[in-house]
Amino acid sequence: MSDSAYARAGVDIEAGDAAVELMKAHVARTKRPEVLGGIGGFAGLFDASKLAAYRHPLLATSTDGVGTKVAIARAMGVHNTIGWDLVGMLVDDLVVCGAEPLFLTDYIACGHVVPERIAAVVEGIADACVSAGCALLGGETAEHPGLMEPDEYDIAGATTGVVEADELLGPDRVQPGDVALAMASSGLHSNGYSLVRHVLLDEGGLSLDATISQLGRTLGEELLEPTHVYAGQVMKLLDRVSVHAMSHITGGGLAANLVRVVPQGMRVDVDRATWRPAGIFELVQATGDISQADIEATLNMGVGMVALLPPDQVDAAQRVLDELGLNSWACGQVSATPGQPATVELSGSHPLS
Fold first, then answer.
1. pTM listed for this prediction
2. Across all residues in the chain, what is the average pLDDT?
3. Can you tell me the distance from the alpha carbon of 308 to that of 177, in angstroms, rounded to the nearest whole number?
4. Per-residue DSSP letters for 13-28?
5. In 275-302, which positions are buried (b, 16+ CB within 10 angstroms) versus exposed (e)?
6. Would you say 331 and 275 are in contact if contact means Cβ atoms under 8 Å apart?
7. Domains of the chain
8. How many CB atoms are closer than 10 A to CB 230?
9. What pLDDT score does 23 carry?
10. What value does the mean pLDDT take over residues 156-162?
């Protein structure tokens, strides 16, 4: 750190410059043909003439962060996976309406810039952007001494996508008889970590380096498992199969997110017996003595995405997802309930080990 007045106040400009140099190669990997220039400008530029090929383009946007999962990354000293969580929370909120993610910007706030740590965070963001086909168009790294401890950081971002107006997915397309096709989550993803950390670490007294037999690895490794980014796979699915609506299962759990794409006068009955949640969900529920209603209102319980589609499209959809390496299964069906509010009902019990 230099001896400038700003440096004496705790802001290291040289470290920030070093972080930018380290992240340039990661950002370059995400570049799409529409991206103009590189990082370092005041704004990222994206050639919007792409939209001229659309009949009636609708822009979609989403903003989010990763919550307290960052605390696990810090405690583990592993920073190159948390970016997957950020990108997943962003782009998978776009694809549920049928929008192709175009570009993403990130924001990293920290108590002290450690160039290698910032670059590792950006590495994960870039890896996930490549998976989603989305450009990392720009971002900001902000050093906040006095507001955050030197080893603290948090990340957030925003993304923009585009969809044809007549191809927009949503409740107005859903029909009685549609099948709910679940897609497996990779674990907890990036929701419910305040509960998980409290139950397992604070009350349960478990340590992150403890090997948990039912998980087959350490608790820290399990809790740091990156969010699965569905965007690239879902866009391929939509190219080949007719889908009416989709739901990204995040905070609030399966029922609360799925009902957001169910129209008035319809309900979706979901059968828990069609899948068994991974061990981490069982561990959290048993350790915290959490009711089924509470756990399902907080965690994804093994389902990261749900598509509502016609029955005659289910087999084809599963073949596509199998080809793309994503496990899926029919978990429920839509029925008409005239005059009633939209509802999602979970019944049955998950299979036991």
1. 0.92
2. 93
3. 10
4. HHHHHHHHHHHHHHHH
5. bbbbbbbbbbbeebebeeeebbbbbbbb
6. yes
7. 10-43+55-167 (3.30.1330.10), 171-347 (3.90.650.10)
8. 25
9. 67
10. 97
